[in-house]
Amino acid sequence: MSDSFANVLKEIIPKKTKSVPLQRSTRALVSRINDWLEESRKEEPPRSPGFHVSALFDLCPRKEALVNKLGVEVLEETFDAKKLLTFAIGHAYHDLVQNKILAKSRLIVGVWKHSGSGEEIEGHCPDGSGLWVYQEPRVVLGIPGVPESERWRIVGSCDGDLADGRLLEAKSCGIGIYSGLDKGYASLDGIDDWYTACGKDGSWAQKYARSHSFQLRLYLCGLDRQEGVVFYLPKGQPPKGEPAMKEFIIRKLPGAEEAAREKVRSIFNAWAGGEWGGPLPRKVCGSPACKRAKDCPVVTQCFAESDS
Question: What gap in Å lies between CA 293 and CA 287, rounded to an integer?
Answer without folding.
Answer: 7
